[in-house]
Amino acid sequence: MSRTVLILLGAPGAGKGTQAVRLAQTLGLPHISTGDLFRANLAGGTDLGDRARSFMDQGELVPDELVLEMLFDRVSQEDCLAGYLLDGFPRTTAQAVALEARLENLVPTVIDIQVPDSDIEERIVGRRMCKDCGAIYHLTFSAPAQEGTCNACSGPLYQRKDDTAAVVRTRLEEYHQKTAPLISFYSERGGVSAVDGRLKPDLVFEACIASIQGSNQGSGHGVNN
Ligand code: AP5
Ligand code: MG
Ligand code: ZN
Q1: Domain ranges in the chain?
Q2: Looking at residue 217, what is its pLDDT?
Q3: CATH for the stretch 4-116+180-219
Q4: Which protein residues are within 6 Å of ligand 1, measured from CB?
Q5: Half-sphere exposure of 56 (CA within 13 A, CB side)
Q6: Spatial separation of the C-alpha atoms in residues 144 and 134, rounded to whole Å
Q7: Distance CA 132, CA 206 (A)
Q8: How far apart are CA 208 and CA 110, in angstroms?
Q9: How far apart are CA 71 and CA 176, in angstroms?
Q10: Among all ligands shown, which has an atom nearest to the Cα of 86?
């Protein structure tokens, strides 16, 4: 059976979640965001949520062992048999190594959505999310038709607790120190497609699709078994 594992790399606010929703729909893959999984655990008051809370609130990465257990449990579910799209995972070399061991000889397709640090704070501080369906908005770049209300489901919009100027600085430091090295990690393996995340979301989406098609045709990356 052919399986595709797609990884979206990128700084906080680069547009991983925005693109992941459309890509998952177009490619027919489940969208797995470790940030969303942690937020669901926080909202549900689980033990995992309690253990992740202080790290997330401060903008630090959650320890690898908590992330890996949660992620591997999720990708063991039946909807992931034909593949999945990872948004926000892996974030450390240890996570990438653990995923590599699990995927055995399957080489993931990796896209790096690139946005300069100078653009990130404005994106993060202006982001609003739907409490009911998780849709992502921005007060100026992607405003809802009616203030405070989701276009898709009429749910209330809220601001993530870690979406402040102070916390975003720590999130960016964590990204540069621990996650950015994964670009080299994957470049040395199946390769990484760089996509310009400063473009309009529709153009970023088209660039992602083009790079996925390119890597599938080129050398079989992302399709295996
Ligand atoms: P997570 O939820 O993954 O947050 P993140 O990586 O900081 O990324 P974001 O969700 O902030 O940004 P995004 O790239 O999805 O951007 P979006 O599309 O929303 O993680 C949160 C926390 O959980 C971490 O800090 C950590 O504590 C923990 N965690 C999660 N995974 C972990 C792991 N694997 N290991 C350890 N800890 C982990 O867009 C942002 C804004 O920009 C929106 O307002 C959007 O409308 C706007 N926008 C999007 N695209 C464009 C565009 N092209 N032009 C203009 N505006 C745009
Ligand atoms: Mg996100
Ligand atoms: Zn909604």
Answers
A1: 4-116+180-219
A2: 74
A3: 3.40.50.300
A4: 10, 12-18, 33-35, 38, 55-56, 59-62, 67, 88-89, 91, 95, 123, 126-127, 136-138, 141-142, 162, 171, 197, 200-201, 204
A5: 20
A6: 13
A7: 28
A8: 10
A9: 22
A10: 1
pTM of the entire predicted model: 0.96
Tokens describing residue 20: 């992941």
State residue 223's pLDDT score.
33
- Cα 48–chain centre separation: 19
Q: State the 10-residue block means of pLDDT for the chain, 225 residues long.
A: 89 98 97 97 96 98 98 97 97 98 96 98 97 96 97 98 97 98 96 97 98 74 34
Atom of ligand 1 nearest to the CA of 59: 25
Handedness of CA 179, 180, 186, 192 (dihedral sign): positive
Catalytic machinery residues: 16, 91, 127, 160, 171
Please choose, from the candidates 12, 219, 208, the residue with its C-alpha nearest in 3D space to the C-alpha of residue 110.
208
DSSP H helical segments within 4-81, as ranges? 16-27, 34-44, 47-58, 64-75
